[in-house]
Design goal:
The complex is a heterodimer of chains A (202) and B (338).
Chain A: H1 6-9, H2 30-47, E1 49-53, H3 54-74, H4 79-88, H5 93-106, E2 114-118, E3 130-135, H6 154-201
Antiparallel strand pairs in A: 1-3, 2-3
Chain B: H1 2-13, H2 29-50, E1 56-61, E2 68-73, H3 79-86, H4 88-93, E3 96-99, E4 103-105, E5 115-120, H5 128-149, E6 157-160, E7 171-176, H6 187-202, E8 208-213, H7 214-220, H8 225-234, E9 240-246, E10 249-252, E11 264-276, E12 285-295, H9 302-312, H10 328-337
Parallel strand pairs in B: 1-5
Antiparallel strand pairs in B: 1-2, 3-4, 3-5, 6-7, 7-12, 8-9, 9-10, 11-12
Helix pairs in contact in B: 1-2, 5-6, 8-10
Classes of the chains: A mainly alpha (202), B alpha+beta (338).
Protein name (chain B): TGS domain-containing protein
GO cellular component, one term (chain B): mitochondrion
GO molecular function (chain B): nucleotide binding; RNA binding
Chain lengths: 202, 338
């Protein structure tokens, strides 16, 4: 009952976070693992797109997300946040980049700050799973070639034609109804006329 | 039948004139397909032997990964071979070749002179011609599918297919089924047709192109009176008829077509409609097979695809080759456009 609400202490990340950290193989033990991750996070903030093994990328991604998230929450006048940034970024000019470039970039987004893609595997080699880790909004060309908005692609041509067809059918339906609306009084009048005429005949 | 084939093969290899001997016989559909396939391979072999001394041409390749010059064999090497020099990705995805920036060339058609080469897949910025080739190939394959799907007791005579019109929503093939007077396919039968189509696709066969003389074409399609009527008008210009082969199926088409059948992805044969001709013509009715397909790698929501299939079920309004107004010549011109 007396527990503090965790969500207010720590911001929720927009990536899947496993319950337990991942051990990375390193002769120096846990410190070596942290060193590795610091190098990777520094590289990610510096180059904005890096290719590496899946384990290390996925682990470093969580730290990078946390770092950016804290920077957005607390700003650059908050001592503990500044210390965290100082610890994780080995090249100190990147601290400026974090607060001056990345915080404005991600302030109003509701997506994760990083993206993880699977990299193509070599056909004959040790099958280590390679991935590409990148910051969103980086200046490089998109990795996925998704020019699906091209109107001339066959699926778009087909869907466009289907849409036009549907609209035409609707319009013709409406036109028919209008015709009916005009027809009905005519029918009434035509039925009315004989009534008028019938007394004359009789 | 085998003896007749041998007789013809000797005639072809000796390059004699092809006198149509009195071949009034009743081949089953499968036998006719086999015979056509045999003649096609022999003619292809003959044309390959006719080349003689091999000359070299320079092909300037433009595109991914970088521009380069390939030295290829004149009259033998195809754009497909050029793609094989580049990468597996080029081989799999290239559907059509663009020579000198203007001429659209089949992937399996030998190059004849120095040229620049661009390989086109389905995602190029201006894919109209690739799409047309795709739609044409789909129609062609629908004919191949219809030819093998029926039992031996049901003779299938392919008539023709009109030029590709993607905006109509479906590709079509008009087939004459003389023994099936009044047939409307059940859902199960349509699914079976679609399954046959998928089987053909999964074989991943290349679409081979061959130009043959009018006499040979007439000989190949001797069992099909509709095609034999169309051939003279098709060959009127230069005396040649362009044939395409996929697997064992050979059919007439103007081309160009895509590289191999594996490039057809999601497909369904959606409906078969009956076309009625005029009462006085010799051809009373045709069946119009309709389908809809997308290239490999195009991922589309199942709901969107259901919209496409629902639309494709309606009778395609492309001109019927046997409608009351049209004369036989016009039906041939429809076949010419295909």
């Amino acid at each position: 009952m007396n527990q503090a609400e965790v969500s207010k202490l720590v911001s929720k990340l927009r990536i899947p976070v496993p319950p337990r950290h991942r051990n990375l193989r390193c002769p120096k033990g846990p410190e070596g693992r942290i060193d590795k991750l610091r190098k990777t996070v520094t590289g990610l903030i510096k180059f904005e797109r890096i290719e590496l093994n899946y384990n290390r990328a996925d682990e470093a991604r969580q730290y990078a997300e946390r770092l950016i998230s804290e920077a957005i929450r607390n700003g650059d006048c908050h001592k503990p946040t500044m210390d965290t940034a100082d610890f994780w970024l080995l090249e100190k000019e990147l601290i400026h980049k974090l607060f001056k470039v990345l915080v404005p970039r991600y302030e109003n987004t509701n997506l994760s700050f990083t993206r993880l893609y699977q990299a193509p595997k070599p056909q004959v080699a040790r099958r280590l799973e390679k991935v590409v880790l990148e910051l969103r909004g980086n200046p490089y060309p998109d990795l996925l070639n998704r020019n699906t908005n091209n109107k001339l692609l066959i699926q778009n041509v087909l869907l466009e034609a289907a849409k036009n067809d549907y609209r035409q059918s609707k319009v013709s339906e409406i036109a028919k109804n209008i015709g009916k609306g005009q027809n009905t009084p005519k029918v009434k009048s035509s039925t009315a006329d004989p009534e008028i005429e019938s007394p004359k005949n009789s | 039948m085998r003896r007749q084939i041998l007789c013809f093969s000797t005639q072809i290899t000796q390059n004699n004139c092809f006198k149509t001997s009195p071949l009034i016989r009743f081949l089953s559909t499968q036998e006719a397909i086999d015979r056509r396939y045999h003649l096609f391979t022999l003619e292809k072999k003959r044309q390959a032997e006719k080349i003689g001394r091999i000359e070299k041409i320079e092909v300037q390749y433009k595109g991914i990964p970088n521009d380069c010059t390939l030295v290829m064999n004149k009259g033998i090497s195809t754009p497909y071979d050029c793609a094989r020099h580049l990468s597996e990705w080029h081989v799999d995805t290239s559907a059509l070749a663009l020579l000198d920036g203007t001429v659209y060339w089949d992937m399996h058609r030998p190059l004849e002179e120095n040229c620049t080469l661009e390989l086109q897949n389905f995602t190029v910025p201006e894919p109209q011609q690739v799409n047309r080739a795709f739609w044409r190939t789909c129609s062609y394959m629908l004919g191949a599918c219809a030819a093998v799907a029926f039992k031996d007791t049901v003779p299938v005579k392919l008539h023709s297919f009109p030029g590709p019109d993607i905006r109509s929503g479906s590709f079509i093939y008009d087939v004459d089924l003389p023994t099936l007077g009044d047939w409307s396919p059940s859902h199960q039968e349509l699914v079976t047709l679609g399954a046959e189509y998928v089987k053909l696709i999964q074989k991943n066969e290349p679409l081979e192109r061959l130009e043959v003389s009018e006499e040979l074409a007439l000989e190949m399609f001797v069992d099909n009176e509709h095609k034999t009527k169309q051939i003279p008008s098709i060959a009127r210009n230069n005396g040649k008829v362009t044939l395409y082969k996929v697997g064992k199926h050979v059919d007439i088409s103007k081309g160009p077509m895509i590289s191999h059948t594996g490039q057809i992805g999601r497909v369904s044969v959606v409906s078969v409609h009956k076309l009625n001709g005029s009462t006085n013509s010799d051809l009373k009715q045709l069946y119009r097979f309709q389908g809809v397909a997308l290239p490999t790698g195009v991922i589309i929501n199942h709901f969107a695809f259901s919209i496409l299939t629902e639309r494709a079920k309606k009778l395609n309004t492309a001109k019927s080759p046997i409608s009351k107004v049209t004369e036989p010549e016009e039906s041939e011109s429809i076949a010419m456009k295909a």
